[in-house]
Amino acid sequence: MQKKIQIFMEQHHMIESGDRVIAGVSGGADSVCLLLILCEMSRRMGFFLAAVHVEHGIRGEESRRDAAFTERLCADLEVPFLLCPADAPEWARTTGQGLEEAARELRYNSFFSACETFRADKIALAHHANDSAETMLFHLARGTGIRGMCGIRPVTEMSSVRVIRPLLCVTREEILGWLGTRGQDYCTDSTNGDISYTRNRIRGLVLPELEEVNPQAVTHMQRTAAQLQEICDYLDEAAWQAGEGTWEIASPDGDRRSICIFEERFTGIPPFLQKHLTHLLLGLESGSRKDITSLHVERVLALMGEGVGKKVSLPGRVTAERTYSGIQLRRGEQDLSNEEDCAGAMVLQIPGETYGAEGLRIRAEILNFTENSKKIPKKRYTKWFDYDKIKFVVQLRGRRTGDYLQVSAAGGHKKLTRYLIDEKIPLRERDRLSLLADGDHIMWVIGYRISEAYKVTEETKRVLCVQVDGARG
Fold this sequence. Notes:
Blueprint: H1 2-11, E1 20-24, H2 29-45, E2 48-55, H3 61-77, E3 81-85, H4 88-95, H5 99-118, E4 122-124, H6 129-142, E5 155-158, E6 161-164, H7 172-182, H8 198-213, H9 217-242, E7 247-250, E8 258-262, H10 263-266, H11 271-286, H12 294-302, E9 311-314, E10 318-322, E11 326-331, E12 341-342, E13 345-347, E14 352-355, E15 361-368, E16 382-386, E17 394-397, E18 404-406, E19 413-415, H13 416-422, H14 427-430, E20 435-438, E21 441-445, E22 462-469
Parallel strand pairs: 1-2, 1-4, 2-3, 4-6, 9-12
Antiparallel strand pairs: 5-6, 7-8, 8-11, 9-10, 10-11, 13-17, 14-15, 15-22, 16-22, 17-20, 18-19, 20-21
Helix pairs in contact: 4-5, 6-8, 6-9, 9-11, 11-12
């Protein structure tokens, strides 16, 4: 396995003699494997290696135990160690992010800070082939294009630092087997077995079934991901070339920088490359393509057929606006008062806490339903939903075109706009409502009604319990 990893690293030019590398080490099996292999390679190749452990402030004593284990291991290996304490719940509350996303942001911020401390220019992370396969399946289930099927890339550039993933060529089973032959201990995160988390469900239930079909399923998926990465890179280059002259950056050095897309020229390139180029331009303006989906791209392109002044809100605080000449993309504070279509959304953490705008805190958990429906709480800001009726991931977001809810047990539907009018909710208040959504189906207009489609019945087996704190009214 070590030889396979070394060849993989050489193919992708991950580390050279004289480099300064930090490794993210959680204490789990994957990161312990990464640390041991890099430690041995550093002695042979002559590069600097340090370990960074981020304690997120989430799992209490178990998390502190992992930090202590990692520090001892680094001391035994004579690898410089840096502990970075963080408060992910507080950061989630401050920024309005979900807990997992907040923890990820703090983790990467800690890595970038550690690079400055150790004068390092490379960050090694322990993602392996199974992680890449999980990412492919997760994106496929949620609805994705080619880019979402590329899995995890071996090398990426972030904030002038190169992020490398040496273990992507090996599976979780290979890692555990290798650690076993060495008699090496590692920590186990108790939350990894909780299948109420989407990725844990894929890891614990879906991938094992695919490996029953073919034991090499993960390896084959990783090969496919690598091929799709090559295709995506080719399409990026083709889109930039085809789109030359169809867009420009306005006021590149000013406070009102924006990207202008010229309709007459833009519509002259092939439709597929229009979509690809739009995705690239959205990433250019927002600073990241991570949260930009095919749905966002479609909404931007749909503006070509709208009237001047029509706007769409997008991830990264980017607003797309229809202009006389085409579309303008601008990053900054979004004014939602004139926008019917607010596409920005965050995934509800189940179980866990999600923090929305204006101090909104939403706590979600899954309960086994053994009582009859008369026991359901009759509170304005605590609601129960039939968890198994949810088709997609649950999102916390504002309203957008196409939203609806079921208003009768017989299946009658009503557009969200019509419901808000019938309830005599003022126009300005409608733009500030928080919604729980399953795709375009609104599960709950928070503070008002829930959709009949998700109500708990005597046939319900699992309940999604949602409690909202900090809501107005």
